[in-house]
Design a protein that fits this description.
The structure is a homodimer of 317-residue chains. The first copy, chain A, has 10 helices and 13 strands. By secondary structure, chain A is an alpha/beta fold. The first copy, chain A, is globular.
Chain lengths: 317, 317
């Protein structure tokens, strides 16, 4: 069974062909050009066709195309409603792809929902039936799986863990317009912000980045934290404490077996793990513990595999 | 259809007979004696039998007995696992009731879960399919209904909204052993605590309670708040702000259509409503708003009607 997968992210787009066992038969990646959404989709569909033909198949052999999108998706109206970072709004994604590819079975969803569904098909599979899937990257997003089913909410917007308040006394501004959100305190952007503050305070610390040729962002900070740099570690500890608070809310509410983390910053989960677990221990009702926080089994391909899983999941509805 | 309902609360027990339309045919209430759980159940079953006979029916005409319990319930093993306030632990409630009454169909559940299920059958019925049911009383409890189904969680402990942290800077101790929980800051107990602090500070304020013969608790404070007493209002505003924070977490996470509130303190929802809504407005992602906070349609009988609804809900599983 051939499944087309398109994962449109805020910065990169990944697309290709996956079979029903989650084996990636073909994969292409390119930077997301946010200037013209229609053009982006046209290019993505052409690349997808190329993948199919290069594998020696025909388009009609593909059972469907799954698309994960970086924003709010209206599944019924098959629309990308809003994508904050790229400025996209009200795009009939399914219809456009159907027209270009001739494939009628096009399933779209929000990227974190796709990841959470993907975990059931290609990640931890049947290991867990109740989990919180959290992506920690530029922002922080979440999705809830309860009793093996994704919880969508009244308007398809559940899992807004990134906008739960984790700081009331000294709240930082969030792109959503509010203050003190987890996204403002525990995301990759927040880590970069803490890092810039520390660099401004200490020229010694700033020089390490120059000397080692590290980028001034979460990834660069992670390199130093892993080398036990005190300041870099304190930055990750701060973010981890806020992540623990946010995850704590989610655990108290849905009583999951596990929290599964994906996204760029989750590759540094090992640096943050102890502080996250310590914070969970004091913010979650004892009856709900222990709950582990683990890295997604889909790694870097989470949203890409997630996109493909949408097609399989739709067959099972 | 006759349904037996037993609602065992931490302070009062309510039992009686309800028909499938939610009409209360018979109701008895007495204080809960927490010293001997078996004796309490025996007494409750005898009273239930009396209700049936007084109505001119026989026990065998009852289709089942629903029991709501003030603590953690293991539905599969049919146990009351733990009840913090009364100290009960590991009681095979269903089995005991089956033996005493001869009725085999005995369904037990946690009281807040029972309320949330009851709302579907006897309260707002089909008006809402996605809601957060919150009880604000001595403590604060919660239950989640998503897409018309109660979310139970991995170990049946979901909805622990009372133990979400709402205060990190000046956290108050919670009976759970942790600090800063919603239960410690936004419950009836918390309101009583704030009230005692204010009474200790101002003899003028203390005298009002003596003069008016008001009890020094949430109910007494509500009387004064409704009369626009500045201190009493500030106490309710404080609790309402914390309740808004807690509800905000729940709304961000499950994207409900509505929050339904029950429990003793919810009868003062109108005093707290504005502050709760203002807090929700700044703590919830805009995409999920508006969400109303309403009082349960089952009023004082919520857990009692909820107990009966367990029997109906079990038929529909």
């Amino acid at each position: 069974m051939l499944i087309g997968a398109i994962d449109i992210g805020g910065t990169k787009t990944m697309l290709g062909i996956i079979n029903s066992d989650g084996i990636i038969l073909s994969k292409i990646q390119f930077p997301t050009d946010t200037t013209d959404f229609n053009l982006l989709i046209l290019f993505a569909c052409e690349q997808l066709k190329k993948c199919v033909l290069d594998l020696g198949y025909e388009m009609k052999e593909m059972v469907g195309i799954g698309v994960s999108l970086p924003g709010m998706v209206d599944r019924e109206r098959k629309l990308l409603v809003r994508s904050v970072y790229s400025g996209w709004q009200d795009f009939a994604v399914s219809e456009i792809i159907q027209k270009i590819t001739g494939i009628q079975n096009v399933i779209i969803d929000n990227d974190v929902n796709a990841c959470a569904i993907g975990e059931m098909y290609f990640g931890y599979k049947k290991t867990y039936r109740n989990y919180l899937w959290v992506t920690v990257s530029t922002g922080v997003g979440g999705a809830l799986v309860c009793d093996g089913k994704l919880i969508r909410g009244a308007s398809g917007c559940s899992g807004e863990i990134g906008h739960m308040k984790v700081e009331y006394e000294k709240p930082l501004p969030c792109p959503c317009g509010e203050l003190g959100c987890l996204e403002a305190h525990g995301s990759g952007t927040a880590i970069k912000h803490y890092l810039e503050q520390e660099i401004a305070k200490s020229s010694d610390f700033a020089n390490i980045f120059n000397r080692k040729g590290l980028t001034v962002d979460a990834a660069g900070c992670a390199v130093l934290a892993k080398e036990n740099n005190r300041i870099a570690k304190s930055i990750y500890n701060k973010a981890a404490c806020y992540l623990g608070r946010g995850l704590g809310y989610g655990i108290n509410l849905i009583n999951p077996e596990v929290v599964i983390m994906g996204g760029g910053v989750s590759s540094s989960l090992n640096i943050m793990h102890d502080v996250i677990m310590d914070t969970i221990a004091i913010t979650v009702n004892k009856a709900l513990l222990p709950v582990e926080v683990v890295h997604t089994k889909m790694g870097y391909n989470a949203a890409f595999l997630g996109a493909a899983s949408l097609v399989l999941d739709n067959f099972n509805q």
